[in-house]
Amino acid sequence: KQEVTQIPAALSVPEGENLVLNCSFTDSAIYNLQWFRQDPGKGLTSLLLIQSSQREQTSGRLNASLDKSSGRSTLYIAASQPGDSATYLCAHLQGGSEKLVFGKGTKLTVNP
Amino acid sequence: SQTIHQWPATLVQPVGSPLSLECTVEGTSNPNLYWYRQAAGRGLQLLFYSVGIGQISSEVPQNLSASRPQDRQFILSSKKLLLSDSGFYLCAWSAANSPLHFGNGTRLTVT
Fold first, then answer.
1. What is the mean pLDDT of residues A98-107?
2. Over its length of 111 residues, how does chain B's per-residue pLDDT go in tens digits?
3. A-chain residues within 8 Å CB-CB of B101?
4. Radius of gyration in angstroms for the set of CA atoms belonging to chain B, rounded to a whole number
5. A59 CB near a chain B CB, below 8 Å?
6. Is A44 on the interface with B (CB under 8 A)?
7. Residue A30 and residue A16: Cα distance in Å, rounded?
8. Mean pLDDT over all residues of chain A?
């Protein structure tokens, strides 16, 4: 069974800190890995997608990396802001299918 | 640009009543379509996905069914709701190897 694990489950930081969210997966034959943001009571918003041939992707203050050999991805958030408070989920596309496997997310709180 | 519409936003239904949640996508053709459920304190559970009209894959045997009557329309149904069907239902679409795009979700409470 393919699994995605996100650690920590919750994280609280003061405004301005740089932080790293972790995602590990058991499927070495992934097609891509995606990071999402979910605000309370809302749907998920796609943040970054890393193809299996790529090592990282950047968007603004966000940088996501992918290491297939170790089964890990990280989401780096620079200079965190209270507006970054949300739950962050990672997911990967299963090899040979159209299904994304999701982690349970990391709930981030950035305190002003 | 592509958009996804999901409705209703909230729904309260009694046990044993039927359910129909609708999702439509605009601005793209032949998308992959998905229904997920998110229960409190749990991760996203894939319920159904479809790669084309009339093609439905079921991931979890349960009290729900899905249909895709048109290319960009995906419907989640139940003939008789159970208490355990309560949750946050999310529709999503994707094109080949592109990000998954979610609707705003439907909060279903079965009483």
1. 90
2. 889 999 999 999 999 999 999 999 999 999 999 999 998 777 899 999 999 998 999 888 678 999 999 999 999 999 999 999 999 999 999 987 788 999 999 999 999
3. 46
4. 13
5. no
6. yes
7. 33
8. 92
Structure tokens at A40: 């309370």
Residues B52-86 as b or e (16 or more Cβ within 10 Å = b): eeeebeeeeeeebebbbeeebebbbebeebeeebb
- Structure token pair of residue B31: 């998308």
Residues of chain B found within 8 Å of residue A104, distances taken between Cβ atoms = 42-43
Residue pair B103/B7 in contact (Cβ under 8 Å)? The answer is no
Tokens for A18?
A: 């740089």
Write out the two tokens for B17.
């009543």
Of A46, A103, A104, the CB nearest to B100: A46
**Dist CA A66 CA B99 (whole Å):** 16
